[in-house]
Amino acid sequence: MHGRILLRQIALSCRRRVVSLISIKLTVAAALAATMLNPTIIAQTQAQKQSPASAPSPVDRNAAGDSPADPGPLATDLSPALTPPAIQKAMRKVADWQIAYAEPRFNQQWTYAALYDGLIAASTATGDPKYQDAVQRMSEHFDWKLIDNRFPHADDEALGRAYLELYQQHPTPERIASTREVLDHLIAHPDDPKKLLWWWCDALFMAPPVLAEMSKITNDRKYLDYMDRQWWITSAYLYDPQEKLYFRDDTYFTKKEANGQKLFWARGNGWVLAGLATVLQNMPADYPTRPKYVAQFRAMAERVIALQQPDGLWRSGLLDPAAYAQPEDSGSAFFAYGLAWGIDNGLLDRKLYLPHVTSAWQGLLQHVYADGRLGAIQPIGAAPGDVKASSSYVYGIGAFLLAGSELTKMTTRKPIHAGGNPPR
User: Fold this and answer.
1) What pLDDT, on a 0 to 100 scale, did the predictor assign at position 264?
2) Measured between alpha carbons, how far is 370 from 357 in angstroms, rounded to an integer?
3) Which of its termini does the chain have fewer beta carbons within 10 Å around, N or C?
4) Cα distance from N-terminal residue to C-terminal residue, the chain
5) In this structure, how many other beta carbons lie within 10 angstroms of the beta carbon of residue 53?
6) Residue 65 is inside which H or E element, if any?
7) Which of 117, 202, 250, 320 is catalytic?
């Protein structure tokens, strides 16, 4: 008798756990069914993630940035005004320092991809070709090729966007040949039923914008269709519709902050919001699933501004800001870029969002040093963590320049009058 009761209790407990798991990730089943993927993808293991084919691309951390003990004094010559001249002055100061520091270390790694995007955008915003010229020299040095020794890892495709941007200015086939070859191989490559292609949220900045822009350049929809399918598979798995944020990967589904809240990484979600903005820039207005991207972009933007701190910036752990004393500038800059793009392109309400973008930009300026170093950038990682005030890494500089570029466009098209942006 006691044995039967015990068995019934165990069965009831198991059923409750199953129901709970189903309610949390019900959307995954729909996405997998739609794409005819094997459900074992949900059981992706940590061992698979650490295999040579799927672990994050190896990077030279010393080439990506540093955290000196004495970075010198902070800048005193930058204006918080949201006007094109003031914004461009800050962009030039930071970009000039970064090129002087980093150009001897330029490489094909994902850490530099966002920097190259930002430098190209800086030339467009300022009218000064020297920033783009630095990217062109890098591209020619590497014969316009991608790293392709860890296929199909998204990190190694991120550099393709710089090549595509430069191709549009001077369309010679060799500029996109390697990128197109890698993307064609990717599309022809069967899905692995045992794991997601883009199993970590950062990947949504690394590969989807390249696929979307290649589709636009070549007028071949296969790249966009492939991107679209893979995006929503990843979204179904990593996006939390209640929090309107992305988990970095599935190892964070059950992890908590010190205050008991779910663990959501600022830079990871910054990568995604910036990726959404960049994909939408290259997606036709009549693309069938575009409304889904717009809806997710708006939902994330709404959540992001609610998590902004009084200094205008975000902490590396979004739901427990008290646990992180230092603001984190790479995630903050990616958020500023995405929000500014959304305002300028009519996806976000200007009156509501402009004060948030203004305070974000002004907050970022507080971390620029006299020589042009932008500090408070979290080193390479995958989760929230402490940040040194002097810490500067190339992807954060790229995000800062992308944000400045969008702010330049926005304030050029519709100037902001003095007193028009009350402080938050």
Assistant:
1) 99
2) 23
3) N
4) 66
5) 11
6) strand 65-66
7) 202
In a domain, 51, yes or no: no
* Cα 150 off chain centre by: 21
Cα–Cα distance for residue pair 265/263, rounded to 1 Å: 7
pTM given for the model: 0.87
In the numeric block, which tokens belong to residue 388? Answer: 């040194």
How far from 330 is each of 27, 67, 235, 368, 374, CA to CA, in Å? 30, 14, 22, 13, 10
Structure tokens at 307: 């998590």
Tokens of 151: 């296929």
How many other C-beta atoms lie within 10 A of the C-beta of residue 140? 12
Parts of the chain with a pLDDT under 70? 1-59, 417-424
Is the bond preceding 80 in cis, omega lying within 30 degrees of 0? no
Indicate the DSSP class of residue 251.
Answer: G
Interval 345-390: pLDDT, tens: 999 999 999 999 999 999 999 999 999 999 999 999 999 999 999 9
| 329 assigned to active site | no
Token couple for 308? 């902004």
187-194 CB contacts, 8 Å cutoff, 24+ apart: 187/222, 187/223, 187/226, 189/151, 189/152, 191/35, 191/37, 192/41, 193/37, 193/38, 193/40, 193/41, 194/38, 194/40, 194/41, 194/44, 194/48
| DSSP conformational letter for 256 | B
Q: Where are the alpha helices (DSSP H) in 150-194?
A: 160-169, 174-188
* Residue-wise burial string across 91-113, b where 16 or more C-beta atoms lie within 10 A, e elsewhere: bbbbbbbbbebbeeebbbbbbbb
pLDDT in tens, 161-181: 999 999 999 999 999 999 999
DSSP state of 192: P
* Domain housing 274: 69-413
In a domain, 44, yes or no: no
8 A C-beta contact, residue 186 and residue 226: yes
Is 239 inside any structural domain?
Answer: yes
- Residue 249 near residue 201, CB atoms below 8 Å: yes
Q: Radius of gyration of the chain from Cα atoms?
A: 22
- The tally of domains found in the chain comes to 1
- Length of the chain equals 424
The CATH number covering residue 212 comes to 1.50.10.10
Burial of 202 (0-12, 13-18, 19+ CB in 10 A): buried
